[in-house]
Design a protein that fits this description.
homodimer; 343 residues; alpha/beta; DNA-binding
Chain lengths: 343, 343
DNA sequence: TAAATAAATGCAATCGTTTGCGTTATCCAA
DNA sequence: TTGGATAACGCAAACGATTGCATTTATTTA
């Protein structure tokens, strides 16, 4: 019937013997079109389910109105935290009339650059991004800014760019969690952190260190390890537990790592939390599945996503000045469960 | 400098004293432009980082070429299976030069309709969708098809529409899993399923029933429950275990439910898998976190997503006829872990 | 009855590209 | 000198919608 062509105003105009301009005005309820003609046109459009071509609309308005598509770049998709982020962004975006366009970088710098290009071509109105781990050049981000596409970073921040960002309070989150471990009587708290080239890793380490200091404890380097996944945790933890002066608590950079520790500690016959306390960071699916359930720092990805979308839309719509770098910090919350002793 | 305006061909043309057509041809390496002019134009464009306006390109080509944006509608985002789906779609799409536009329906019919409208307006070239639970009208999908936007369903299928689809082999997956439970010596296998208005629920139930029959067992209705989440599982399982003729195995419609069962069964002092076997469906994050680790049917969301994207792109690019309804079934795989006895 | 006013509609430019076709310039052969 | 190729470029229409301005028609007023 419509042979894969969309119905256009021109078609309606031809069919009803009026001009395209009249159709346009009628459909936008302009009072300058007579009532009967207006209704006739609207009815015809409805019956043949006419749909405005947004491409043409956008082209026409490209000077004034930006598009309503927000680009989102995440390192991974199958990942609790990033899913939550997406969820938060989607919620805020859809509530304010925006669509989201999602791509994953796979932790690859090259892919990240490609994605930026593709998104620029697709005329997203702005981009929310958590960098890939191996990104150390920032030209692609600078190009975007030069092209007038606002950028909001989350989680993994680009220090070289004074861009808007929203991060969780890694420092305080860790400080509070470790302080809690100490307050329940733990004296030797181990720390499994991510590689220190990421801000987020540094901040968590600093939180750990300061929690010890504030409680009159020293940092024992033999209790600090670079380890941010389960496999590594299962590999290095046995040796840790066989030390003569073994830890009586673990703080892990994420839940996944914490689960690795928990698995090993249980297998070695220690009791949790009596012999060993464990605290994670995320509060994802895993936290309530393990036995005992995991005490962890809630990272509130949904809130982070929501704030990021709010900033971006503010930048796009002008309620935030374009050259302003808005920086927000989302507070974390310690969720106490079974892997830690009680006060 | 560029005062928020993008550099256009017209700008280049003016600056270099040629026509817009010449610029266009030069940038697309047309041989009809003299070598020096071509290089000069290309260099100017590069130096001032010119970027073609995809909106205008699309408008020009809208008759022949569809856009390269694929719409994806999922009921939830913070969900292992749907994350995997997204991951599969994104992988296939980006490899073939497509972007994905994601929205979540929140299991709401109303929202689903809104999203379809928005995506139609945004001129996606096609849509991949898993319906919301409460969707029982299909006009919005029919409108899309009428507008020439191909549709691919996954997981939750719309029976009223003869559309392309990709589903996992729920029937065989369940049949194999339950058969395995029986082969390890279980005689009374309970079944926790989703509400039967979803195809996926029916197929799994049929798989369960036929596995019993094939092994000479009868369906005992007291062992069959509608239950597809953890909270419900924790609520109804204690009574189940206190029956005089209690089950010696559970098959659950998803891992989450299986974890609920596992938690209760352990708390009641039964030993897993000696007293009770448990089998889930998904093989997500949870499966390797619980103790013992969960035997489960791997749902292969990434593969499902990949196939769905493959079909959709085929439909869009014409390698699949537009009126053809491609139906694919992704095979599942039983992953045997600690919650079931060995042979 | 003519002029002024108001109401309803059409014309045409515009957004940034692409592309069929026509135009100009250049050169060579007849 | 003229005709015909060929190369290099420009013109202008098109994609589908919006909108300032001009135009037409109907209505009112003097």
């Amino acid at each position: 019937m419509n042979e894969n062509r969309h119905l256009t105003m021109k078609d309606i105009a031809r069919e009803l013997g009026v001009s395209v301009a009249t159709v346009s005005r009628a459909l936008s309820d302009s009072p300058s079109i007579s009532r009967e003609r207006r209704l006739a046109i609207q009815q015809y459009a409805r019956e043949h389910n006419y749909f405005p071509n947004i491409i043409a609309e956008q082209l026409r308005h490209s000077r004034r109105n930006p598009s309503h598509a927000i680009g989102v770049i995440v390192p991974e998709l199958v990942h609790y935290y990033f899913s939550s982020i997406l969820d938060g962004i989607e919620g805020e975006a859809s509530a304010r009339g925006y669509q989201i366009m999602v791509a994953k970088s796979n932790e690859s710098y090259e892919r990240e650059v490609q994605i930026c290009e593709a998104m620029l071509k697709n005329k997203v109105c702005g981009i929310i991004v958590s960098q890939a781990k191996d990104t150390e050049q920032y030209d692609h981000f600078k190009h975007l800014e030069a092209a007038g596409v606002p950028l909001v970073f989350f989680d993994r921040i680009c220090p070289a760019l004074n861009a808007s960002r929203v991060v969780v309070d890694d420092y305080m989150g860790t400080l509070n969690a470790v302080s809690y471990l100490i307050s329940t009587g733990c004296k030797r708290v181990a720390f499994y952190g991510a590689p220190m080239n990421m801000m987020i890793a540094k901040n968590r380490y600093n939180g750990y260190r300061d929690a010890l200091y504030k409680n009159g404890l020293e940092v024992d380097e033999s209790l600090v390890r670079i380890c941010d996944n389960r496999a590594d945790a299962e590999r290095i933890t046995p040796a840790m537990m066989r030390m003569e002066n073994r830890p009586d608590a673990f703080f892990a950079v994420n839940d996944e790592t914490a689960i690795g520790i928990l698995t090993v500690v249980k297998r070695l016959g220690f009791s949790i939390p009596d012999d060993v306390s464990i605290c994670g960071f995320t509060n994802g699916f895993r936290a309530t599945v393990c036995d005992p359930m995991l005490t962890t720092v809630e990272q509130r990805g949904t809130q982070v996503g929501k704030e990021a979308a709010d900033i971006l839309i503010g930048l796009v719509e002008g309620s935030l000045p374009a050259d302003h770098a808005e920086k927000r910090i989302v507070k974390t919350r310690l969720v106490i469960r079974g892997t830690t002793r009680h006060l």
